[in-house]
Amino acid sequence: MNTTVLSTQKLTRKFGDLTAVNQLDVTVERGEVFGLLGPNGAGKTTVIKMLTTLLRPTSGGAEIAGFDLVRSPAEVRRVIGYVPQLLSADGALTGAENLRVFAELYDIPRAERRARIDDALAFMDLGAAADRLVRTYSGGMIRRLEIAQSMLHRPEVLFLDEPTVGLDPTARRAVWELVSQLRSTYGTTVFLTTHYMDEADQLCDRIAFMHLGTVTAIGTPAALKKSVGGTGTTLDDVFAYFTGGTLQEAEGGSYRDTVRTRRTARRLG
Amino acid sequence: MTQYEHAARPDGLAERHPLPALSPLARLARFFRRTLTIVTLEVRKLRHDSTELVTRAIQPALWLLVFGEVFTQIRAIPTGTTRYLDFMAPGILAQSVLFIAIFYGIAIIWERDLGIIHKLLVSPTPRTALVLGKALSAGVRGLAQAIIIYILALLLGVDVSWHPASLLGVMLIVVLGSALFSTFSLIIACIVKTRERFMGVGQVLTMPLFFASNAIYPIAIMPAWLRAIAHVNPLTYEVDALRALMLTAGTSAFGLGLDFLVLTLSTAVLVIVGAMLYPTVVQ
């Protein structure tokens, strides 16, 4: 049986003259945690936006859980979950209400809704805070709530865009544990982006380095370390090696990326 | 092969819930359920924090108390046998509903900046349901505003009709008017994309919409060019319908049927255009 759950074929997105993503070809196996790494402006978020149907590819395409991204975006939406980079749970609603809205939007049968929401709250350790307004939550709690929201319909593939930006070390570790638990409990395939090397090392089965819109290296963290140097090589070295090692400037997306990251950080207080 | 056969998982750990049948009727029912989800979401937010409903009462109160009382005294505007205060009360209802609705788009930009819209768009909710849900929730705010105007009107002795059919008619028109102008606002937000530009455009549009209508003076006293604009301004039809429905002695200049038709068709067109533009706000 075919175990590939996501594959892209020459996936490309241009913004005017800028090619944000250039002929991307990656394949993700079922149950895998796959990480897309790269500096700000490398095109990671553009890849996620295309794969989650928010942005149409300029050319090329992808197949997710057997559905064609370009031809059947509506079907793709049913089988994926998405946690955007921004802390996007609605602060004006309680945690339970946030979950309820998404249970309804994903057509989870009325009879099951209550149980799913209670499960999710327990899984994320948010039971005690369920009826508090989300604007009183800490950053880590909001992130857990959002992952719960995105898992209510048991997606085949869960997309996490910079899942731990702006979180403190404890909250980051909690998110990592959660992602591992999701995989072992539900067999969910996880596709995440990050620019934290420790995150990729801890979480990902395989990682792809992205630089200026193209994948420059792909493999397991161990294999990538080995390919760059001998013992003592860290993923930071690998990162520097495969992304040119220099600061990128004026790569179009980078300014907006920074602004967004700052905004997220500010919201976390 | 059924459409969802792929969902069988090799590990058998997570069983997928069955997806709803896709007959046209079921699809339509699901569409309205999703729309309702968006409306209840907005109503819940209002329930958690309803201070905005109170602060919004101030502006129409000023219009009715100051402008209305003064112009009633000096009889500067010819409104036939209708007292000026009675004439303008439905106009002020329409105006305050317009003022709420026309800045609705700023919430769209705000929600985009928070990433809320990203998640809604990634869910399998039809875009039209998202936009219509937003439009109708603006209607809920409009209805709250209508209650305030009715209280003010009662205090000022406006000749209000309390017939249940009139009240229902007013509610319908208020919801339609809110939906129409809030969707218009959503479309502007999707085009201009930033808060600053949106505020600018919003300010520029509000006053012309208000003054080029029959809200506070009859169309008959307008110069011909302004009358022409008033005739293509949906607010004119909203006010016309409200004037006929809200007042005991109210009459409609265009006929309630035409008013209703203009408002419904404009709203429908705007919702369809809005649904096409809505996804571009996150790009």
Written overview of the protein:
- The complex is a heterodimer of chains A (269) and B (283).
- Chain A has 269 residues and is an alpha/beta fold.
- Chain A is 41% helix and 23% strand.
- In chain A, the strands form 2 sheets. A 6-stranded mixed β-sheet of chain A has the order 7-8-9-4-10-11, sandwiched between helices. In chain A, strands 1, 2, 3, 5 and 6 form a 5-stranded antiparallel β-sheet that branches.
- Chain A is globular and about 50 Å long.
- The model of chain A is unreliable at 247-253 (pLDDT under 50).
- Chain B has 283 residues and is mainly alpha-helical.
- Chain B has one domain (24-282).
- Helix content of chain B is 71%, strand content 0%.
- Chain B has 12 helices and no strands.
- Chain B is globular and about 55 Å long.
- The model of chain B is unreliable at 1-18 (pLDDT under 50).
- The interface between A and B is large, with 50 and 38 residues.
Topology:
The complex is a heterodimer of chains A (269) and B (283).
Chain A: E1 4-15, E2 18-24, E3 27-29, E4 33-37, H1 44-51, E5 59-64, E6 67-68, H2 73-79, E7 80-83, H3 95-105, H4 110-123, H5 139-151, E8 157-161, H6 169-186, E9 189-194, H7 197-203, E10 206-211, E11 214-219, H8 221-228, H9 235-242, H10 253-268
Parallel strand pairs in A: 4-9, 4-10, 7-8, 8-9
Antiparallel strand pairs in A: 1-2, 1-3, 1-5, 5-6, 10-11
Helix pairs in contact in A: 3-4, 3-5, 5-6, 8-9
Chain B: H1 24-48, H2 51-55, H3 58-74, H4 84-102, H5 105-114, H6 116-122, H7 127-155, H8 164-192, H9 195-211, H10 224-232, H11 234-246, H12 256-277
Helix pairs in contact in B: 1-7, 3-4, 4-7, 4-8, 4-9, 4-11, 5-8, 7-8, 7-12, 8-9, 8-11, 8-12, 11-12
Mean pLDDT of chain A: 87
User: CA-to-CA gap between the ends of chain A?
Assistant: 48 Å
The tally of beta strands of chain A, per DSSP, is 11
Taking the sheet with the most strands of chain B, its summary is: none
